[in-house]
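Supplementary Methods, section 5.1.

A reviewer requested that the exact input to the structure prediction be made available. We therefore reproduce it here, unchanged from the version used in the analyses.
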Amino acid sequence: MPISTAEVATERPDRYVKQLVSHLGQRATAEVGADGRGVIALERGQCVLTPGPAHLGLIATAVDADALARVQDVVARHLVRFATQEELRVEWTEPADGDALELVQPVVVDYLETHCTPPDDLLTELVVRTREVAGHAAGMQIAHDEGALLSMLVRLAGARTALELGVFTGYSSLCVARALPADGRLLACDVSEEWTSVAREYWQRAGVADRIDLRIGPALDTLRALPNEPAFDFAFVDADKDNYPAYYEEVVPRLTSGGLVVLDNVFRGGRTFDPAFRDEAVTAIRRVNELVRDDERVESVMLPVRDGVTLARKR
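The structure derived from this sequence is encoded token-by-token as follows.
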């Protein structure tokens, strides 16, 4: 249960951030950013301090429940001590695991899906077909609103050449390929003949099969066999998460100037936020998130779309 938050009513949030960072920085790692956001890192956990209008937001995370309780106690105790001119109440939420976080409320999901351009009959049929043939694995298919976002990004970027890592049954491929001009090309990479056989059928029916070059095999092998030079205007990465850092490093050099790479599942179901999750896939996602943030070759933004989407545009 390593995540807990609190919202403390106060007219002096910036002052308390500075006081906490200054005092606790003597025994821990602590800093304040230019935007006033503070971070206090203790031995087995940390607390993020975010000043807002008439409140101070606290986000405590730790590797386990005992460490979380320690972070909560240290921060709350010192905060109350510093409040000599007002009485502060620090009420932490019940601790929760990262994968228990509700990233998108069902009512929000329903509203999003019913207030964007609706899917046509072919995309709708592909969703039903995927559920029939894939069962629980159908969760690997992107949702309609994310597909609509991909199509819009391809058109806004004016992309003519595109790359996709992770095809599954072809929903995202359809959204990308349809958004390309008639002479556009999509290089699609996947390891499954079974799932991509469904994709091939729907590409054919959509009239975009001639735009898509499907390569079956490990995507890293496919990428490394390509010339190491700019060739793609757009890339969508939605393959095995363990290899995300390697995919990113192979994709960026092959993007044209102004080219866009889209990384899916950067929240990893909330596990990315939770330091208690340390399996290979989660640590790989954290690593690629940091790579993108620190990469001077790109400008980037992370969006709370579904399971988290990062957009990185090559300078």
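The longest helix spans residues 65-82. These observations are discussed further in the main text.
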